[in-house]
Amino acid sequence: MSNFAYMSGTGNDFIVSTYTGPTSEIQIISLVADSDYDVDGVIFVESINNQTVKMHYFNSDGTTAELCVNGVRCTAKYAYDNDLVTESMITVQAPVGTLIATIEDSIVKVSAPTPTYVDKPIYIDELSGIKAEIGNPHLLVEVDEVDSFDLQSFSKKVAMSNTFPDGVNVEIYQIINDNFIKTRVFERGVGETDACGSGALCLFNYAYSEKKVLNPTTIQFPGGELDLEYKNEEFFLSGTVTYL
Length: 244
Hints:
This protein has four helices and 16 strands. By secondary structure, the protein is α+β, with helices and mostly antiparallel strands. The two termini are 17 Å apart.
């Protein structure tokens, strides 16, 4: 790989490199197996012009995903630091569409598409969840205590229910106050991860739309915090990006 790096977007860890051509699923699995860190995915960054890059993203099991927002933030930071672009406001072409990322030192903010959700609850194992989407699917489930909840077992029950034949990211959450949510996520193709940008966007959009929280709101994952804001009819997500 060219200009290889390990990067973390608020706890989502990735192998990031410059794009040199198509990569097979077996090659991705091999890269993950040989990694010095437990990574959630592999990203190849392709330069389009001095303000635009394309993100080629793979889950740790070699599969592709429609969107990884923390991956977009790492892509933008990597492109800027490796002179693939010349501007600090960067257009990132992702499978689900184009996102704009702004870099200020270690903080990367993304202007994201507005998620959607269905307010009719889905019941699994006597718990109700809300289906939300932002290019990729999420199941949002409010629980009494995020830290002690058996997320892995519950995610298996979600998979066995066949409610989501193509899989789903399962997110449990606990509203702490009007501006703070605690959450954990089990991502399809990966397992439990320390953060999930697309999940944070889905969760904030739902909670804010249903008047469960105010604007802006901070969402805390095991890997750190993401700040969410709705401004001028746009959704913004920001947080740290670091090198491992």
